[in-house]
Design goal:
The structure holds 2 protein chains of 2 kinds. By secondary structure, chain A is of the alpha/beta class. In chain A, about 35% of the residues lie in helices and about 25% in strands. Chain A has 2 domains: about 10-90 and about 170-255, P-loop containing nucleotide triphosphate hydrolases (Rossmann fold, 3-Layer(aba) Sandwich), CATH 3.40.50.300; about 100-170, no CATH class. Chain B is mainly alpha-helical. Classes of the chains: A alpha/beta, B mainly alpha. Magnesium ion binds near residues 98 and 176 of chain A.
């Protein structure tokens, strides 16, 4: 069980969603979602596969557009900004993809450099090398720097993916299923890494998962997405302290005893 | 016996399926149209991804050289050898260099180059972008504030558009050398005599139209490969499909374009 981060600033909303709706063709995925993410907080979004968790964070990072509702990220309305402004905001948001999304054709070094080389043109070779070393050290994979992504294990790829987003020092981290497809021990390591990132880099994070261990160990607060809306909200215990069958079955399935 | 009602139902279903298909075809056409429009909207505005363009030109151009050298040379030899039989019937084998030259410059070189490029480059673009799409690498680029369309699509389409004509010229040269090799062996024609005939037979219009044609072929191969990859469906199956349909579609379009070009060039030549 995670100790709630004492540095959460409840007066500072880094993300706020109001009445967010999104459908594909005639399928309503998100049906009016309201959510606040506070400065310094790790917020876990739980939900079964296909409930629209990935869609939610893709809307937050501007990869998808909401059909209805207000999406406010770091003071900017995502529905209103585009081009340069959107790019500038995106540099403050780190996105850890479900499959890590490392660039297959590049080495680990080139993967990590990519966001820097493209967005921080003022940096020299030495500064770039330094920054690469710092994030590689932070995820504990300094020795892989010259390898190709295909040579790494799933857990290592996840770490490199997280390192690649950390290199721009984002204020917000979005983790899409950080432990999916990993063995239990590697999962725990990733959970610890998520908490380390929170304190060391002062990030506010949304962690999307259907893994209850991950939710329990990384979340300061947990919300549960059911039928396109957030039905439960609170600490891990509070969320599962209910008679709602849908919630209970989710719990029982995860912790088969 | 089937009732009238049942028949009507069946017809309605069939009509529905057909109208869905037609719908899909038009949606795809509209999508490709937007894709091309987007290419032209983005190609002229900075940032220009020079480094990536050079890298792609290397991938498309230099890496195709071994295959294209071999194919071009063999086609030169085989075509010359096969044509000899017909010409020999009229005792006109001395016309061989002129015949080869016209056939290679006007038709064989542009087509062979385009087909090889579609097979080698088109499929690899489709597969590469397809797998980048499926594994969210394209999304990853976008969230790190890099325009993936510019970085991936524009660079590749430019590379195929400019490298295909270059490769075509190279194929002309290699195939003519293949032809020379064969003619020299059989008719003992000298190098100079051969190339004098070759250059006398072709006009500026022949070369010019083949170059323009190759630009169009190259553009088609790049756009089709990128479009198929960029719009690849989820899963590894989607990647395979993207690679496969890149090749099939590009080759089909190249033949259609070749037919159109034939009409246009014919009109110009006899205008
Ligand atoms: N780009 C898209 N086009 C059409 N449907 C989509 C798209 N993205 C997601 N969906 C659909 O939205 C639903 C939610 O998807 P997703 O957010 O990926 O679920 P998950 O909660 O497992 O992350 C799924 O049914 C999926 O098919
Ligand atoms: Mg998902």
């Amino acid at each position: 069980m995670k100790k709630v981060n004492p540095n959460i600033d409840k007066n500072n909303k880094v993300i706020s969603l109001n009445g967010l709706k999104k459908s594909f063709d005639d399928f309503d995925v998100l049906r009016g979602v309201d959510l606040n993410l506070y400065q310094g907080e790790n917020l876990v979004v739980l939900g079964r596969s296909g409930t629209g968790k990935s869609v939610l964070i893709k809307i937050i990072s501007g990869l998808l557009k909401a059909d209805e509702g207000v999406v406010n990220v770091l003071g900017s309305n995502m529905n209103r900004i585009a081009g340069r402004e959107l790019d500038r905001l995106r540099l403050k948001i780190g996105f850890s993809f479900q499959n890590s999304a490392l660039y297959d054709s590049m080495t680990i070094r080139e993967n990590l450099e990519f966001p820097l080389v493209r967005n921080r043109k003022e940096l020299g070779r030495k500064e770039i090398d330094n920054l690469v070393e710092v994030v590689l050290e932070a995820v504990g994979l300094s020795q892989t720097i010259n390898q190709m992504p295909s040579e790494l294990s799933g857990g290592q790829r996840k770490r490199i993916g997280i390192a690649r987003t950390l290199i721009l020092r984002p204020e917000i981290m979005l983790y899409d299923e950080p432990t999916a497809g990993l063995d239990p021990i590697t999962s725990i390591e990733i959970n610890n890494l998520i908490n380390e990132v929170q304190t060391r880099f002062n990030t506010s994070s949304i962690i999307i998962t259907h893994d209850l261990t991950c939710a329990r160990d990384t979340g300061d607060r947990v919300v549960m997405l059911l039928d396109g809306q957030f039905q439960r909200e609170g600490t891990f215990e509070e969320v599962f302290n209910t008679d709602d069958e849908r919630v209970k079955s989710f719990y029982n399935y995860n912790f088969i005893k | 016996m089937r009732s009238k009602n049942e028949n009507a139902g069946e017809t309605r279903v069939r009509k529905y399926i057909i109208s869905k298909r037609i719908d899909a075809v038009f949606t795809t056409l509209a999508d490709i149209h937007f894709f091309i429009v987007r290419f032209f909207r983005e190609v002229f505005f900075p940032p220009y991804e020079f480094k990536e363009i050079v890298r792609q030109c290397y991938e498309v151009g230099v890496k195709s050289l071994p295959l294209i050298s071999l194919t071009g040379f063999i086609i030169g030899i085989v075509f010359t050898n096969q044509s000899r039989v017909s010409l020999a019937e009229f005792g006109a084998t001395s016309w061989l260099p002129a015949l080869i030259s016209i056939a290679i410059v006007r038709a064989l070189a542009p087509l062979v180059t385009a087909l090889i490029a579609a097979g080698r480059v088109g499929s690899s673009i489709g597969a590469e972008l397809g797998s980048m799409k499926v594994t969210e690498q394209i999304d990853a680029m976008e969230v790190s504030a890099t325009n993936p369309f510019k970085f991936l699509v524009v660079t590749r389409v430019l590379a195929t558009t400019f490298m295909t004509p270059a490769l075509m010229m190279y194929v002309v040269f290699v195939a003519l050398m293949g032809g020379y090799f064969n003619v020299h062996k059989n008719e003992l024609t000298s190098f100079t005599a051969y190339f004098v005939q070759v250059f006398n037979a072709i006009t500026f219009l022949d070369i010019f139209s083949s170059i323009i044609k190759s630009f169009v072929f190259g553009f088609t191969i790049g756009i089709v490969g990128c479009y198929k990859g960029y719009n690849s469906s989820k899963g590894t199956e989607g990647v395979g499909k993207a690679a496969n349909s890149s090749v099939v579609t590009a080759m089909f379009l190249v033949f259609i374009e070749e037919l159109l070009a034939l009409q246009i060039i014919h009109a110009i030549r006899f205008a």
